[in-house]
Amino acid sequence: MKKLPRRKYPKKSSLRYIYKFEELKVRYNTKKIFFILLSVFGIGSSIYWYLGMAPTPKLDTAVAIAPDIKLSYQIQSYTSSVMGGQRTYGVSLPPNYGQNPQQRYPVIFLLHGGNGRPTDWFKKGLALSVIEQLYATGKLPYSIIITPDGNDKRGASPFYDPQYIDGVNGRVNTAVGNELVRVIKSRYSTLPTAKFWAIGGLSSGGWGALNIGLHNPQNFSVMFSHSGYFRDRSGARNSPVTYIKRISKAKRQQFRIYLDAGDEDGKFLQQTKEFAQVLKTLKIPYEFNQFPGGHTLIGPDSLWNYWHKHLADSLTYVGTQFQNASPVETVGPPNPWIKNN
């Protein structure tokens, strides 16, 4: 009988190395899978964060206290020589607009944030329900509400913020802060002076509102920011925390500024506090509030829930500044109207 060759088995020491090698492979693959999942989650969260945060969250239901005040909005366009081509904006007119041809109104610009559009404040922020309540309670004089297109020539994107500056991607600061102002004055019955013009926004739109307002003091005196930042990568000229110090004291005296940020706003909260301290040092009238929530993905005060809720705070401040700027009279209760100026 033919003798079969003896089968060779690995030595125990060799088996130990083989087992360790296989164990390392398993550990490596597990870590690799974990980091891939973590990266996907991080990218997804970032995209969600910048998308402004769609889908639109469930917002607080408006209290039905103004049954006779129902606002609407339209999207209009104009030819921009500054940006080259057609630009759009949203507009909501006061309830009685056009009934008295002599009546003129204050103007409020609301700027969108990252990957935003002129419809954001109306569709995602449900701004009109907030404004209706403020009209009904007399906290905000009837005003012309404008939501500009703040995007530069690159368009809206979840991967970068709009540049509310005059830069290589377009002169957005001039387009919104000067050109669009002239368009609005030519099309609607506006009060002409800066003390009846306000500009505000959320997140990058909060920074944009202050940047545009400070560069155009001839057009705006009231500014407000929700969850905004105040240092821009483009430099000191477009960083309100430093640029405001360059403005003459005479021009600074006209400014009235509202700021708020949430506990979850991180560096935006810190920069808002820093800017508030600068305003205090320069003796510029301002109001600062810190609220729960902000730039967070979960909770009742996240993203649009936060901005919807606290739009009432900023516009109440705006209304007070409008009313303090000129004697008021009551025409048709309960809203105080500003006399022609």
UniProtKB/TrEMBL annotation:
Regions annotated as coiled coil: none
Q: Name one Pfam family in it.
A: Esterase
Which superkingdom does the taxonomy of this entry point to? Bacteria
Q: Which residue ranges traverse the bilayer?
A: 33-51
Transmembrane listed as a keyword = yes
- Keywords noted in UniProt: Membrane, Transmembrane, Transmembrane helix
Q: Does the keyword Cell cycle apply?
A: no
Query: Which InterPro entries does its entry note?
Result: AB_hydrolase_fold (IPR029058), Esterase-like (IPR000801), Mycobacterial_A85_antigen (IPR050583)
Protein name listed in UniProt: Esterase
Q: Which organism is it from?
A: Crinalium epipsammum PCC 9333
The organism's lineage is: Bacteria, Bacillati, Cyanobacteriota, Cyanophyceae, Gomontiellales
